[in-house]
Amino acid sequence: MASEISDRYKHLPDSVQQVAKILVVGGFGVGKTTLIGSVSEIEPLRTEEAMTAASVGVDDLSHLPDKHQTTVALDFGRITVTPTLALYLFGAPGQHRFWNIWDGLAYGAVGALALVDTRRLNDSFAVLDQIESYGGLPFAVAVNVFPDSHPYATDALRNALDLPPHTPLVMCDARKRTSSLTALITLVEHVTELTPTHL
Ligand SMILES: Nc1nc2c(ncn2[C@@H]2O[C@H](COP(=O)(O)OP(=O)(O)O)[C@@H](O)[C@H]2O)c(=O)[nH]1
Ligand SMILES: [Mg+2]
Question: Any idea what the CATH number is for the domain that residue 93 is in?
Answer without folding.
Answer: 3.40.50.300
